[in-house]
Design a protein that fits this description.
The protein is mainly α. It folds into 2 domains: 3-49 and 62-146, no CATH class; 154-202, no CATH class. It has 6 helices and 6 strands. The strands form 3 sheets. The chain has a two-stranded antiparallel sheet. Strands 3-4 form a two-stranded antiparallel sheet. Strands 5-6 form a two-stranded antiparallel sheet. The structure holds zinc ion (ZN) (2 copies).
Length: 213
């Protein structure tokens, strides 16, 4: 019995989210806390970040922008993600987590928490597709204010292929939305879609993560 990805509706052998959408969700959850802090810079009237072009229109034309920022900062992002977290808790039969700290901390904390559940979410959570779409929309709304960066592809990690003499390749492997196969530009090792998350998870990105042994 096959199922389909809740985000892109592609057929899957099992689970609720395809590897590409799981990876995209993982990356969005990593980017969102920083984006959320950047959004705060747009909140105070007349105090946009240095270098930002200020509208030459009437002062009132700034209000809709601030409303959108307000929605995202004080409703949108933290509350939406926390309600997903609480749904995941109830599906798994876990008791509800306490919400503590300021908004920046709450967003960082809930993004990390959901990020750590992704394996289970992709495999076993029927709401996975809706969660992925909602996170994509939140990021899209935030980026519409903060401004998207050009898509040079995101660094997935370093190539983990080992040559005949036992040396790890280490070339940077980049991923762009929609890539199905990634070929290492140094050693030509080919990563299939199902390997993307593994490669991503193998990378020591955080100081507290120990070196792969
Ligand atoms: Zn998908
Ligand atoms: Zn390589």
């Amino acid at each position: 019995m096959t199922s389909s990805c809740g985000a892109c509706e592609r057929d899957l052998e099992h689970g609720y989210l395809c590897p590409g959408d799981t990876l995209a969700l993982a990356e969005r959850l990593e980017r969102l806390p920083k984006l959320f802090i950047e959004l705060g810079l747009y909140l105070a009237p007349g105090s946009r970040p240095a270098g930002e072009r200020v509208s030459s229109g009437p002062a009132g034309s700034r209000l809709p922008l601030n409303d959108t920022v307000l929605d995202l900062r004080h409703g949108g992002i933290a509350l939406v993600l926390e309600s997903w977290r609480s749904d995941i808790h109830s599906v798994r039969g876990w008791s509800e987590p306490a919400i503590t700290g300021g908004l920046d901390y709450r967003v960082m904390h809930v993004c990390r928490w959901i990020g750590m559940q992704l394996e289970w979410i992709a495999a076993s959570y029927p709401g996975a597709g809706d969660l992925a779409r909602e996170v994509r929309d939140l990021e899209g709304n935030a980026l519409s204010i903060v401004g998207a960066k050009p898509d040079r592809g995101r660094l997935l990690g370093q190539c983990v292929a080992v040559d005949a003499s036992g040396v790890v390749c280490g070339a940077p492997i980049r991923y762009r939305n929609g890539d199905k196969v990634l070929v290492c530009s140094w050693c030509s090792y080919t990563y299939e879609e199902r390997d993307f998350m593994t490669l991503y998870q193998l990378q020591p990105r955080e100081a507290e993560q120990k070196e792969a042994s």
